[in-house]
Structure prediction request, 297 residues.
Amino acid sequence: MRALNLFAVIITGIILIYGTQDMPDWADPRSPASTHVSPRYIEKTLEETATPNAVTSVLADYRGYDTLGETTVIFAAGISCILILRARRQER
Amino acid sequence: MFDFILSRYNYWIYIILMMIGLYAMIGKKNLIKKIIGMNIFQTAIILFFISTAAKRGGTLPIIEHAHGAHPIQAASYVNPLPHVLMLTAIVVMVSTLGVALAIVIAIYRRYNTLEEDEILNLKR
Amino acid sequence: MIAAFDLILLLFVLICAVAALSVKDLLSAVIILGAYSFFMCLLWAEMGAVDVAFTEASVSAGIGTVLFIAAVSKTKRRSKD
Prediction:
């Protein structure tokens, strides 16, 4: 059983390492992730949102609905923690 | 060849971290150890996404030229978009951690053990 | 992005991950996981993601460790593997 687990993990690792040879170089400024949409955020953040920190302006202004959904996730997690721990106590 | 290794070794170390977490999730018997493995797995994924944002020669994504004296060069700042997405992912990670630990406490109250094989024996 | 610094931090992270999974005492494993989170936070601050490093240091290394310690103190401390 232990050998089977190790086999599955190593096969997954080999497939992923095979996939890295098509990745862009590490910290390449011309990689696709840093040329497509993020230059617009960096160039326009000061005149559109008046916030010097680009991470804050994207988090709260451009993608505010993501933060709203994150708040929903935290709320659901807290409610489910309370429900799991309290239902067990009532059963005793 | 040496250049290839130098530009890829980070990705390989992230994959090794992810394999450690995956092995702990499917191979360990203790439930808390499984949750530690899940934490390592998620952190490795977040590390991979953060590393796609790095740029050689780029500084922090805080814009300095406040008065428009120079045009802003996008290549001299780190990509802010993966940072934002991973900020959300860290918070979701802690939420799943809380729910998983609550479920583990409920299992311990019911079966009085944390080992997976003992729980399966007791259920039978 | 200094390559030697980066390599040393990645090595520490790997050592912490293996140690947290191979220690038999669960409370020690949880504390080593906190050290893992702090090394990860240093790694991100070194890559230029200071906001993510802040969040990791406060949320994952702080609240996560507190949640783990609460769960371990409510349940058993010994583990078999």
